[in-house]
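User: Hey, quick favor. My workstation is busy. Could you predict this chain's structure for me?
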Amino acid sequence: MAKQVIEYAGVPVGIVVPDKDLLKFIAVKFHVHDLDGQHFASPSDVLRAIHTLMSASHASIHRAA
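Assistant: No problem, here it is.
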């Protein structure tokens, strides 16, 4: 597998590249930077992690308001 663009909500947020029999996520958008460099088994696992991260970020913003 070659590199693959990862989109979230229609916006490219990073890429995955093969690394050590897994996929290494490289973030290109600040709001997913916490996942930069992490390894995942599949692109869908990356999307799940992004969704979890974004949900947690939005929840903390709403609690602070």
